[in-house]
Every structure is written in C-alpha cells, then in structure tokens.
C-alpha cells in the first residue's frame, strides 16, 4: 500500500514540476516545434501539456506525456506488442497491466515505478518480494 501511495504522490509531484519548470524529455517536442511539424506526423499530449511526440511514439508502450495520453486507447497495439515481445518468444517472466493489455518484464512489478497507466504494476505490493532485478532501466515514469 505504501509503494502505491508513493507512486501516486510522486506522479502528481512530477506532473506539477514538469508544468512549472517546462521539463521536456528527449522524446518530446516543445510547443514551438510542434507548431512547425505536420499535424499528421505528431500526437499532441493532453492534460494541458503544450508538447507533442511523433506518431511513432504513440502507442509504443512507453509513456512520454506526463498524463500518459500517448498510451491511452492503445489496447490493440499493446496486445500485439505483448504477443510479439513475450508470448511468441516464450518468455514467461512478464506481467500484464490490468486495463490496457500492456506487458512488462516481471522485474517491473513493485519496483516503485508506475509503468502501467492504471498503476496495477505497483498495486498490492505489501509483502511482495521481487527477486528479479531489471537489467535495463525503467521505460516509464520514475517515482
């Protein structure tokens, strides 16, 4: 329960910090740059953000927009990615997010990072011991 609450409070903090200090990741473009790009090649983040990502970054399983809008309504894409990345390769150490079909390496469960939009990877962590350590840094929002 503590990790879940920590996850939520840090996301709120990161989102407010990003807006007040105009933090833009390497995967996002500023409003000026977005305005110069063709609309059919970009996805504008929702939630009051004035940034965008390229269409190729939308529904790719990595949250770029602070509110996660670039990964919302992507069930079909996430399910296809899950199938090609885990199921077809017969990798059994994975978890699937509850609401959006996104799959993650099991080492992402209860690691203090919300990788699922619904935060299900950080739910019910009390007493859970994650014995797997990820070799690659978290792909999503750090908390």
UniProtKB/TrEMBL annotation:
Keywords of the record: Disulfide bond, Glycoprotein, Membrane, Receptor, Repeat, Signal, Transmembrane, Transmembrane helix
SUPFAM superfamilies: LDL receptor-like module (SSF57424)
Chief localisation class: membrane
Official protein name in the record: Low-density lipoprotein receptor-related protein 1-like
Gene: LOC100375705
Membrane topology per record: Single-pass membrane protein
Leader sequence residues: 1-20
InterPro entries noted in UniProt: LDL_receptor-like_sf, LDLR-related, LDLR_class-A_CS, LDrepeatLR_classA_rpt
Disulfide bonds: 59-74, 110-125
Compartment(s) where it occurs, according to its Swiss-Prot or TrEMBL record: Membrane
